[in-house]
Sequence to fold (211 residues):
Amino acid sequence: MSIKKEEEDIFLELKAQLFERPDSAPLHYNLGLAYARKGQLDEAISEFKQAIAINPGLVEAYVNLGGIYFRKGNIEGCIEQNLKALEHDSDFVHGYVNLGFAYFQQGKYEEAIGQYQKAIKVAPEFPQAYANLGNVYLHQGDLSAAVEKNKKALEIDPNFSLAHHNLAIAFFRKGDYSSALLYLDNALKLGFPVNPELKKALDPYRGALRD
Fold:
């Protein structure tokens, strides 16, 4: 059975179960996830909202609703939903990480840093928080802090591809092309969608460094 066929079967089964149990928050939530995977964002929003109406403490529903708003370009809506999630569970690390990313997209770097630091406080072994924080420092031009945070992400998860990519950029900007190439190649091996301009800029140094 193909993955697509299996997903469609799960989708139909969820709809059938909801017909029998329309007041089930988990079923509405899971159907929302299924709609999101199919790209039916308005339907996903409806299901997440119904899940929240039935169970206001279902923090995952707020976060995923925020994710849909983000995909639709509604960053303020994304922020609002993640704040609501954190009202219900102040240790929910994904809420802080999502807020950090939303603020980063708005160019509010200090607010983003604050949210990532909160994420690290509640989940010190969550590599995404360190890599995202390092990315903010990268955009601020603080290359040393960017390197430090992304290396911390790799201490936790050596295969965290975003951190490898961030380090490739940081070392390229520092003029350490050997290290930049090392991390770029790691990112490529891990399947990360590498910035083509970075790859193009570093390619001439491959032969030069070997020579």
In short: The two ends are 51 Å apart (CA to CA). The chain has two domains: 1-89, 121-211.
